[in-house]
Amino acid sequence: ESVLELSPRAIRTIPRSITPAPGYRNSTGRRFALEGIRVLDLTWMLASAGGPKVASSFGAECIRVEWRDRLDMLRGAMGVVPDDGKPVGTPTKSVNRGGYFNDINAGRRGISLNMNTPDGKEIFKRLVEISDVVVEGFTATMMERWGFGYENLKKIKPDIIYVQQSGMGKK
Questions:
Q1: What is the pLDDT, as a whole number, of residue 10?
Q2: Calpha distance 107→134 (Å, rounded)
Q3: H/E segment holding residue 103
Q4: What are the distances in angstroms from CA 30 to CA 17, 39, 100, 124?
Q5: How many angstroms separate the CA atoms of 129 and 136, rounded?
Q6: DSSP letter assigned to residue 74
Q7: pLDDT digits (tens, 9 = 90+) for 87-114
Q8: Fewest C-beta in 10 Å: which of 30, 39, 77, 149?
Q9: Strand 2-6 vs strand 11-15: parallel, antiparallel, or unpaired?
């Protein structure tokens, strides 16, 4: 088992320890139900992001994939916490202050990938290789258009579990 380490010039894997998701600790000494499971999370908004939230709560390591130029709309919607010392309702400079976003994404790691570039696709492929589950909430054909539909994901990792939660139907 391994964790992906990214540097500007290299992508390599390093051993992964079986530990709870960041932010979750088990005071009983017993393992969480999903410890040791890695979820590659390409969800957005509330509906599709609920499954990975539950997985993270049960100890899975969830890696949230976004592109910095197309962030989840929840980052700046509903329940935005203002910058320190500012009154409520004041625009914030940070994209990490959305209350709903932080609630639904608690305990997840994050990476920004442009899936429209060869480098972004290569990093994503490496993440698939070391993950157990891929969850996405795009339109039904988006992953196929990127070259990462279920059949191609299985070629990268034959035992991958793929969860498609399109809110827009199958076509």
A1: 46
A2: 17
A3: helix 99-104
A4: 15, 21, 30, 32
A5: 16
A6: G
A7: 666 666 666 666 666 666 767 787 888 8
A8: 30
A9: antiparallel
> How many residues can be counted in the chain?
171
The conformation of residue 168, written as its DSSP 8-state character, comes to: T
Neighbours of 34 (CB within 10 A): 21
Reduce the DSSP state of residue 158 to 3 states and report it: coil
Q: Are 99 and 147 in contact (CB under 8 A)?
A: no
CA distance 94 to 129: 32
Q: In this structure, what token pair is assigned to residue 33?
A: 């139900």
Backbone dihedral angles phi then psi of residue 42, each to the nearest 5 degrees: -110, 35
Tell me how far apart the alpha carbons of residues 25 and 2 are, in angstroms, rounded to a whole number: 21
Q: What is the pTM of this model?
A: 0.73
Amino acid at position 34, single letter? L
